[in-house]
Amino acid sequence: MSTQLNPIFSVPFYQTKFDDVDALNAKLKQRFIEKEREGDANRNVGALVNQPDGLYESKFNLFDWQYTEIKELEKKCWTALYGLIGEINGYDRDTLLRLHIKAESWFHIMRKHSYFSTHCHPMASWSGVYCVDPGDQVSPDSRSGRLEFINPFPAASTYIDMANARLTGIYETNHVGIQLQAGQLVIFPSWLQHQVLPYLGEKERITVAFNARFMLQGPLPTINR
After folding, report:
1. Residue 189 belongs to what domain range?
2. Whole-prediction pTM
3. Between 132 and which of 10, 106, 195, 206 could a Cys-Cys bridge form, CB atoms 3.0 to 4.6 Å apart?
4. Which Pfam families match (predicted)?
5. pLDDT for 203-217, tens place per residue?
6. How many structural domains comprise the chain?
C-alpha cells in the first residue's frame, strides 16, 4: 500500500530582513515626518478605507520621489520581489528582464490607538510591507501594531473537534500575525486579506507599502518543471 500526505493549496509568503539599514531607516523616518508636517500636500485625502485618528497615509507615488533614500529602498524592494517571482514561477533572468512593473507605493505613520482595518489590494499581483520603525514594543499579549494575515480558508472553521483542533505547521487554520522589525520586508499575494491591529506605543510606528502588477514584453516563456 502506498500513501501520501500533501498540501494541495498553499499561499506563498516571503520574509527578509536587510542588514545595515539603520542609517537608511533614520533618513526615511526624517523624510516621512517632514512630509507629514506639510499636511494634505502629501496625504492620501481620498482614501477608501477608513482611517482613524493617529494614522497618516501618504499619496501612492512614494517610489516616484527622487530622494536618495527612497530610491535605495525601492531598489531593495524590487530586487527582492523579482527574485521571488523568478523562484516560484521558474523564470530565468532573461524572462524577468521582460517583465515590466507598474506599482503604487506609500508610507504609513501610526500613532497611539491607530490601526488599519481588514483589506486586500485588488488589481495587483503582489504586495509588500517594509518596516522603517516598529515603534514601541509593549506587552506581547497586547498584540500592539501586529500585522495580521487572515486565513484564506474560512470554511476550515465551520466544524472543529479534537480531530482537527490542533493542526500545526502548513495545516494551521488560525490567522498569522507578525510583529515587524526595523529593516524587515514581507511580500505576499495581493488578494490575501490583512490588517494592522491597534498600536499602543508612544512613539511613531512607520512602514512603507507597495502594490505591484506586471506586463510581459515579447513571447510567453517556456518553463521546464
Report:
1. 14-216
2. 0.94
3. 206
4. 2OG-FeII_Oxy_5
5. 999 999 999 999 999
6. 1
